[in-house]
Amino acid sequence: MNSDRNRTVDVLKGIAIIFVLFTHYEWTPEQRKIFIFPYVINMSIPIFMIISGYVYSLSQSKKEIHHLEDAYDKSILINRFIRYSVPLLVLIIWELLDPHFSISARPPLHLLKWGIDGTYGKGNYYYPVLLQLVIVFPIIYYIIETNKEKGLLICFVLNAMYELLVWAYGMNTECYRLLVFRYIFLIAAGAFAFNKYRIGVFKSILFTILGALFIYFITYQKYNTKILNSDWASTSFIASLVIVPIMIWILQNVNLHFWPLEFIGKASYHIFLVQMVYYLGYYSVLQNVFLIWQVHLLMGMVICIVAGCIFYYVDRPIQSKLKLLITRIH
User: Fold this and answer.
1) What is the three-state SS of 141-161?
2) What is the pLDDT of residue 4?
3) CA distances from 19 to 14, 182, 244 (A)
């Protein structure tokens, strides 16, 4: 076990990726109203965004980055691009060669857009969001570091302003889902947690109640948001208030250790990519094999986790060699 790793972060990532696999199963709209979905399962990507803010902050600290311009060092940007893009390249090749998808027959420009968009599949927006995060994060961290506790409020306001502009400019959902700016507040919460800043008990309770009420109205009272994108309201920065205080508290105060979840958490990105392929091309095949839905769900999750973990451990030495090569060139 690498002692340098934050085991709590790995456990949280492991839990979040299991939530992702669970939520992408074809549940009915009524089933998705069961309490566990809106208040727990739907928070998987918000959890990942908070963790990303925390881990990127940890990385900046280890690299002793004290100036904004240093965060844009060429080697840092290239290494992160490699980290996210090499596994996706494997996915691209897989989908081009696999007859389940019939992607290769499409025009070259369509294929270019398809790759930039993170290919197809459930959660394909995650790759472009991560690439944008590499560019946006240093600015968010700078806001938190220079404004301390007030920095989180500033990022909340910036997130709200972005949503207002999205509504005013009539941005469509397809574009909206691919942009990182809807997660400004959550990323900032991760940086906030890393810097050991405190929200306070009263504000924590207030945030949680506001988030819970918002989820209640959009889920059970059929409230249609007037400004926020309604398709993504359930994981918006307002809905996510329900988990922000507890996530900050856990990251600052709790040492979680559970080897299976840590193992899964380390491979969470690769599991995420595998599940995109699984749900796009193999979900229905397995459905015909396992007629009992519980078995179908469980086997799909097991396949994605096992394949994703193997993918991760095969990819690690490749990425290490690429990063070493980049370092030598730099």
Assistant:
1) HHHHHHHCHHHHHHHHHHHHH
2) 65
3) 9, 20, 17
Q: How many angstroms separate the CA atoms of 241 and 238, rounded?
A: 5
pTM attached to this predicted model: 0.94
State the burial class of residue 92 (Cβ atoms within 10 Å of its Cβ: 0-12, 13-18, 19+).
Answer: middle
As a whole number of angstroms, the distance between CA 175 and CA 164 comes to 15
Q: In a 3-state reduction of DSSP, which class is residue 136? A: helix
Give the list of residues 6+ apart from residue 237 with CB closer than 8 angstroms, or none: 156, 159, 160, 163, 182, 183, 184, 185, 186
In SS3 terms, 2-14 reads as: CCCCCHHHHHHHH
For the chain, the first-to-last Cα distance in angstroms comes to: 30
pLDDT at site 1: 42
In this prediction, residue 97 carries a pLDDT of 86
Q: For residue 28, what are the contacts with CB-CB under 8 A and spacing of at least 6?
A: none
Token pair 């809106």 in the structure block, residue:
38
Angle 5-180-281 from CA coordinates, rounded to 5°: 80
Cβ neighbors of 238 (< 8 A, separation 6 or more) are 210, 211, 214, 228
Map residue 254 onto helix, strand or coil. Answer: coil
User: Treating both helix axes as pointing N-terminal to C-terminal, what angle do 126-147 and 44-62 enclose, rounded to 10 degrees?
Assistant: 60
Contacts made by residues 294-302, CB under 8 angstroms, sequence distance 24+: 297/22, 297/25, 300/21, 300/25, 301/18, 301/21, 301/22
Which alpha helices (H) appear in the chain, and where do they start and end? 7-23, 36-39, 44-62, 74-97, 108-116, 126-147, 149-169, 173-176, 184-194, 201-220, 244-253, 259-266, 268-277, 283-289, 293-329
- pLDDT score for 244: 98
- The pair of three-digit structure tokens given for residue 38, joined into one six-digit string: 């809106």
- 3-class state of residue 304 by DSSP: helix
pLDDT under 50 in the chain at which residues? 1-2
The total of other beta-carbon atoms located within 10 Å of residue 179's CB is 16
